[in-house]
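S.,

Sequence below, as promised.
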Amino acid sequence: MPNSGRFMGIIGAMVLLVLVLPASAFAADRSPDQVYIDRVDVTAGNTGPDGTAPVTAHVTGQVPICGPLKEDVSRQGSTVAVTIAPRPLEPGEVTCQAIGLRDYAKDFDLGRFEPGTYSLKVNDYTTSFTVGGAGRVMLGPLNGMLDRLFG
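The prediction came back faster than expected:
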Protein backbone atom coordinates (compact mmCIF):
# COMPACT_ATOMS: atom_id res chain seq x y z
CA MET A 1 0.00 0.00 0.00
CA PRO A 2 2.03 2.96 -1.23
CA ASN A 3 -0.57 5.57 -0.16
CA SER A 4 -1.27 4.19 3.33
CA GLY A 5 1.23 6.59 4.95
CA ARG A 6 -0.46 9.58 3.34
CA PHE A 7 -3.90 8.28 4.37
CA MET A 8 -2.74 7.86 7.97
CA GLY A 9 -1.31 11.39 7.90
CA ILE A 10 -4.67 12.80 6.80
CA ILE A 11 -6.49 10.81 9.50
CA GLY A 12 -3.98 12.02 12.09
CA ALA A 13 -4.47 15.65 11.05
CA MET A 14 -8.26 15.29 11.28
CA VAL A 15 -8.03 13.74 14.76
CA LEU A 16 -5.72 16.57 15.86
CA LEU A 17 -8.22 19.17 14.62
CA VAL A 18 -11.04 17.52 16.53
CA LEU A 19 -8.95 17.45 19.71
CA VAL A 20 -7.66 21.03 19.41
CA LEU A 21 -10.78 22.88 18.25
CA PRO A 22 -13.58 23.66 20.70
CA ALA A 23 -16.79 21.69 20.25
CA SER A 24 -18.55 24.91 19.26
CA ALA A 25 -16.40 25.03 16.12
CA PHE A 26 -18.37 22.10 14.78
CA ALA A 27 -21.85 23.28 15.77
CA ALA A 28 -24.29 21.63 13.37
CA ASP A 29 -26.46 24.73 12.98
CA ARG A 30 -23.58 27.03 12.02
CA SER A 31 -21.90 27.26 8.64
CA PRO A 32 -18.07 27.38 8.75
CA ASP A 33 -17.94 30.30 6.31
CA GLN A 34 -20.23 32.73 8.19
CA VAL A 35 -19.71 35.16 11.09
CA TYR A 36 -21.94 34.66 14.14
CA ILE A 37 -22.39 37.34 16.82
CA ASP A 38 -23.37 35.92 20.21
CA ARG A 39 -23.11 38.97 22.47
CA VAL A 40 -22.46 42.71 22.36
CA ASP A 41 -21.67 44.70 25.52
CA VAL A 42 -21.64 48.49 25.16
CA THR A 43 -19.81 50.78 27.57
CA ALA A 44 -20.23 54.56 27.62
CA GLY A 45 -17.52 56.50 29.41
CA ASN A 46 -17.86 59.72 31.33
CA THR A 47 -19.08 62.83 29.55
CA GLY A 48 -16.17 65.17 28.90
CA PRO A 49 -15.97 68.97 28.77
CA ASP A 50 -17.18 68.88 25.16
CA GLY A 51 -20.43 67.22 26.28
CA THR A 52 -19.65 63.89 24.59
CA ALA A 53 -18.69 60.50 25.99
CA PRO A 54 -16.50 57.76 24.48
CA VAL A 55 -18.38 54.57 23.63
CA THR A 56 -16.94 51.10 23.07
CA ALA A 57 -18.54 47.80 22.16
CA HIS A 58 -17.17 44.40 23.18
CA VAL A 59 -18.28 41.86 20.57
CA THR A 60 -18.08 38.09 21.01
CA GLY A 61 -19.07 35.32 18.68
CA GLN A 62 -17.60 32.89 16.20
CA VAL A 63 -15.86 33.46 12.87
CA PRO A 64 -14.41 31.16 10.19
CA ILE A 65 -11.14 29.46 11.14
CA CYS A 66 -9.63 30.40 7.79
CA GLY A 67 -9.12 33.73 6.15
CA PRO A 68 -8.95 37.37 7.14
CA LEU A 69 -11.88 39.44 8.37
CA LYS A 70 -13.14 42.84 7.25
CA GLU A 71 -14.35 44.95 10.19
CA ASP A 72 -16.10 48.26 9.51
CA VAL A 73 -17.74 50.77 11.86
CA SER A 74 -20.16 53.35 10.46
CA ARG A 75 -22.59 55.82 11.96
CA GLN A 76 -25.62 57.58 10.55
CA GLY A 77 -27.52 59.75 13.02
CA SER A 78 -28.45 57.69 16.09
CA THR A 79 -27.68 54.36 14.40
CA VAL A 80 -24.25 52.74 14.58
CA ALA A 81 -23.38 49.71 12.46
CA VAL A 82 -20.46 47.32 12.89
CA THR A 83 -19.99 44.87 10.05
CA ILE A 84 -17.77 41.83 10.51
CA ALA A 85 -17.38 39.60 7.47
CA PRO A 86 -14.82 37.36 5.78
CA ARG A 87 -12.59 39.53 3.60
CA PRO A 88 -11.91 38.42 0.03
CA LEU A 89 -8.35 37.21 -0.38
CA GLU A 90 -5.85 39.43 -2.15
CA PRO A 91 -3.84 37.98 -5.05
CA GLY A 92 -1.05 35.85 -3.62
CA GLU A 93 -2.70 35.27 -0.22
CA VAL A 94 -2.92 31.64 0.82
CA THR A 95 -6.37 30.12 1.13
CA CYS A 96 -7.52 27.20 3.22
CA GLN A 97 -10.64 25.09 3.43
CA ALA A 98 -13.24 26.48 5.85
CA ILE A 99 -13.85 23.52 8.15
CA GLY A 100 -15.04 25.14 11.32
CA LEU A 101 -15.38 28.23 13.47
CA ARG A 102 -13.16 29.84 16.07
CA ASP A 103 -14.10 32.02 19.01
CA TYR A 104 -13.98 35.75 18.35
CA ALA A 105 -13.77 38.66 20.80
CA LYS A 106 -12.91 42.25 19.97
CA ASP A 107 -13.39 45.74 21.37
CA PHE A 108 -14.56 48.40 18.92
CA ASP A 109 -14.15 52.12 19.54
CA LEU A 110 -17.46 53.53 18.33
CA GLY A 111 -16.46 57.17 18.80
CA ARG A 112 -17.75 60.00 21.00
CA PHE A 113 -21.47 60.51 21.51
CA GLU A 114 -23.67 63.29 22.83
CA PRO A 115 -26.22 62.36 25.52
CA GLY A 116 -29.06 60.30 24.07
CA THR A 117 -30.20 56.84 23.10
CA TYR A 118 -28.61 55.05 20.16
CA SER A 119 -29.11 51.83 18.22
CA LEU A 120 -26.18 49.50 17.54
CA LYS A 121 -26.31 46.77 14.93
CA VAL A 122 -23.46 44.25 14.73
CA ASN A 123 -24.24 42.08 11.71
CA ASP A 124 -27.65 40.58 12.64
CA TYR A 125 -27.39 41.40 16.37
CA THR A 126 -29.16 44.63 17.40
CA THR A 127 -29.07 46.40 20.76
CA SER A 128 -29.43 49.93 22.09
CA PHE A 129 -27.40 52.03 24.48
CA THR A 130 -27.80 55.33 26.29
CA VAL A 131 -25.18 57.99 26.86
CA GLY A 132 -25.85 59.97 30.03
CA GLY A 133 -25.74 63.72 30.38
CA ALA A 134 -23.73 66.05 32.60
CA GLY A 135 -24.76 64.14 35.72
CA ARG A 136 -22.48 61.29 34.70
CA VAL A 137 -19.46 63.57 35.05
CA MET A 138 -20.08 64.15 38.75
CA LEU A 139 -21.17 60.59 39.41
CA GLY A 140 -18.74 58.96 36.99
CA PRO A 141 -16.83 56.85 39.56
CA LEU A 142 -20.09 55.81 41.25
CA ASN A 143 -21.66 54.92 37.89
CA GLY A 144 -18.64 52.79 37.02
CA MET A 145 -18.86 50.94 40.33
CA LEU A 146 -22.61 50.39 39.95
CA ASP A 147 -22.12 49.17 36.37
CA ARG A 148 -19.56 46.61 37.58
CA LEU A 149 -21.78 45.46 40.44
CA PHE A 150 -25.12 45.30 38.64
CA GLY A 151 -24.31 45.60 34.92
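The chain is about 20% helix and 40% strand.

Coffee later?
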